[in-house]
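Researcher: Going back to the complex we discussed earlier. I've cleaned up the inputs and rechecked each line, so this should be the final set. Can you rerun the prediction on the complete assembly and write out the structure?
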Amino acid sequence: MTNHAQRASAFIHQSGKSPWHDKALWHVRTNRDKAMATIPEWEQLRETAQQIKAHTASQLDDYLVQFEANCKSNGVHLHWAQTPDDLNKIVLDIARAKGAKHIVKSKSMLTEECHLNEALEGAGLIVTDTDLGERIVQLRQEPPSHIVLPAIHTTKEEIGELFHKHFASEKGNNDPTYLTGIARKALRDDFLGADIGITGVNFAIAETGGIVICTNEGNADLGTALPPVHIACMGIEKLIPAIEHLGVFTRLLARSATGQAITTYTSHFHKPRRGGEMHIVMLDNGRTALLGEPEFRAALSCIRCGACMNTCPVFRHGGGHSYGATIPGPIGSTLGPSQNIKAHQSLPFACTLCGSCTAVCPVNIDLHNQLLTWRNRIAKAGYVPLVKRLTMKLFGITIASPALYGLANCFIKVVAKVPVLYRNLTPWGKQRSMPVAAKKTFKTMYVEREREQLK
Amino acid sequence: MATLALLEELGVTVVYPTAQTCCGQPLINTGCTYNLAKAAAHFVDTFCAFDYIVSPSASCAAAVRHHYHKYVPTNTASEHVINHTFELCEFLTDVLKIESLNARFPHKVGLHHGCHGLREFNLASCSERNEAAYSKPVQLLNMVKDLELVKLNRADECCGFGGTFAVDQESVSCAMGRSRVHDHVSNGATVIISTDTSCLMHLEGIMGKQKESIATMHIAQVLRGESL
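Model: Rerun complete. Updated structure for the full complex:
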């Protein structure tokens, strides 16, 4: 199994996409900075958002019960899923009961987490992702590489080729407006023929039992307005207490995600439309366990804006697929190990600890500190590679003793004089020259100076 | 030697305790905290008798100030060391409160903010946050005659060093480094300076293997007006 470093290296050296991927996402980060600058109380908003989320998490059980009761009185069916398999089964059972054949789906990272598409398709259903980026990665048969910009790793040439193959668009026509038109036309038929619309949820409001879905393309609106059945899938952490809290988050979300003041559509759903059915499926999948971890609990506050990905230089240069996790980037690197420490052990190390993610996060999650804490846990669990573990052990012993430390310095001085040795000891010298060692160490010069002054 | 000379020129009595080793930052960063408690205890013993502990590297100072409390027993000595360990620039601006320097550096300078200095020590406002702009290193550089600071496209992006990250994640680390070098060179800098030597070592290594190449210097050297 490959690790993050190997996958990122392939993105940099084989795909050649790294420089423009970096530039494209930095552009999004710049737009986010401009939008932030228009809100003088930005830092206060972040703190308020953090507090609302922390409060909700502290009484999540009560809010969930309140939300369930309000859903029921609104005529919405609420289902509880412990695992991804539970969620997939619930959705499949609804589809079967309705005799559904075709499902349209708007963007939902939670259904990616559950591999819902595969489960439904395995049962013979046709699922069409209706977010343009999601549709592109669905046709490419790969997972999204970014939670807000799922196809950010693809070029317009690749998309032109893809649409030519699937939708018979003009060969060689890579004009983004033309290609969007092609996707729109194809999707319109999917919307009209669908039996069920599946959506994610951005916010759920305990006090009203309502849910809020934010999109730019309006695909969630069409996907719920046309088919008679709406199934919304959400994690239990999406809850906020009351409608008055929503504005704090909608002000932060779109500005952090893309630099827009607000998403084009911020749609509220409270009850099934006339003659229709509305279901909400609530997923745990490790969230309750995470709630019990004081050092990582704040990760549940994430509103999935993607700002930490856009600002992270490792993400920008190494690409989203290098994480090998449903949620990539800094937030994914802390959520990943919480679900499976062994499988995602390389993610907390895919980080220079620069702290930009923590500073950009609209809900103030201490992302880089969480990654540092994960490194310690991963080391304690014995997943750090043997060579590194032994090196660090030796280093720890050396620095605790001035005598050994002095000896080690002499050793390094010798190694530094033999290029064959240091070039092969680490990959430092592959794309970098070796630092030139000073003729004398600082300590030697300092001691000599002291002696000189005593004379 | 520049840090020592600079502090002495500003009237500080400086001692370099020769029994010192390493603060243990690499152990903290990698999560492999084996024997760290011993190393940290040695650090506290070595430095607890001094009024201030000053480091020309924010990463080292941050390890002591932000992480030692987890590894050393709480007592007067450890608390003194943790609370009195300073990065050089903040020691100059916040403790010595210097207002002028007798230095000249007639060059176009690109300032690389080390991330730990920036986001852990708040040496400057960071571009992600909506806060009044300030910078302690720039405040000091403005006291140096004839020094011209170039404006970068990305004011405070990480260089990609990151300790063991530089070798564990060699590809990403070098891609990040090249991107930073290009920003400095294309904006006309003739020297990259930083509060952290480790960032400079990485950037210098990158430049050693490519055509775009300019000098690197630690900020202490520039604040003394040492020649390029």
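Model: Worth noting: Residues 108-223 of chain B form a domain with the Rossmann fold fold (CATH 3.40.50).
Researcher: Good, that matches what I expected from the previous run.
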